[in-house]
Amino acid sequence: MKIVSVVGARPQFVKLAPIHKAAKAAGVDHVIVHTGQHYDPMLSDVFFEDLGIGAPDVHLGVGSGSHGVQTGAMLSALDAVFDEHRPDWVLVYGDTNSTVAAALSAVKMHIPVAHLEAGLRSFNRRMPEEHNRVMTDHAADLLLAPTQVAVDHLAHEGLADRTVLVGDVMTDVLLEVRAEVSSQPSPLLEELGLTPGGFYLATIHRAENTDDPQRLAEVASALAGLDKPVVLLAHPRVVAKAAAHGVALDEGSLMSHGPLAYADLIAAALASAGIVTDSGGLQKEAFLLGIPCTTVRQETEWVETVDLGWNVLANTAQEIAAGVTRARPADTDETPYGDGHAAERVVEVLLSRRA
Ligand code: UD1
């Protein structure tokens, strides 16, 4: 059986790693296509190298651009790739422009499409990711859902007969890496002279927090005013927007730092007093690491983290400050994100339904 995986952005490389491992173990011919949406080495190459994926088989080199330009360039390049490989499945990941482009190109060529991380919803129609996920779910032939909540959303949209609950593949990676890093010192702490529990770790990159100058200034000043040092692992988007809008990312408690490799990120998260983020993946990683999370958004797709008390939504400076200083949540035995074997289940389902 041949599967073509299409990835392009940082979180997709993390999701790809356990799928690639499980596909190889099952003897699947697994072709990896990188759209080139993310191209900086610290957003791309380092994940392929460190997570044992190797190099992509095909690199489209699409790069940055407006949604239309970027998605259109991917669509036209992917047609030729799918035509050459004619796989049994095209596997698409998450909610980026690379996801929707690959799903659209493949279904129009009558190639079966499976969507990994199907059924997540923010119900915020101003998020580009929300459109990407809804369109991909409705186009795809097989919906691989990470949680029961995602299964319920898909059923509500009339998609129950295409849905399978597999668990969350990012959890597969996290559990492995946590075991590796928990006994080692965090390189970030050594570099910045921070003490365990003496700082907050932050990431901010969503369009809704970065693109409007006032909003970015509000978020930066909220972080600068917190009661402990805040290390902002700055995505190139936030660096570019801060420079364009004249917003300082290094003042008060706030200090910016480049993005980290995956294991270094997990080690730093584990050593932090709390996480402040608008990333989807990091909210879940915080939960799985037992680190309180404050999410700088008005809604989350990972509602289990909030329901179980490990995550709070915070929009204003006051809410962010209250979020990071709140009492530590009660420990929980709940495992809403699966058992760390989701990727094996994905490959089993794809094999059992091969066209
Ligand atoms: C994309 C996804 C988002 C995901 C995020 C993970 C979409 C619509 N958004 O957002 O869902 O959470 O990836 O990180 O697909 N840039 C660089 N170097 C790079 C990549 C980007 O400098 O390697 C800069 C460019 O200025 C670019 C901007 O970041 O224009 C935005 O990049 P883009 O890929 O459009 O979206 P992300 O914000 O990364």
Automatic annotation (TrEMBL):
Molecular-function annotations in GO: isomerase activity
Pfam families: Epimerase_2
Alphabetical list of CDD domains matching this protein: GTB_UDP-GlcNAc_2-Epimerase
Coiled coil (residue ranges): none
Keywords per UniProt: Isomerase
Domain named UDP-N-acetylglucosamine 2-epimerase: residues: 23-350
Taxonomic lineage from the root: Bacteria, Bacillati, Actinomycetota, Actinomycetes, Micrococcales
Family of this protein: Belongs to the UDP-N-acetylglucosamine 2-epimerase family.
Record-given protein name: UDP-N-acetylglucosamine 2-epimerase (Non-hydrolysing)
InterPro entries associated with the record: UDP_GlcNAc_Epimerase_2_dom, WecB-like
Source domain of life: Bacteria
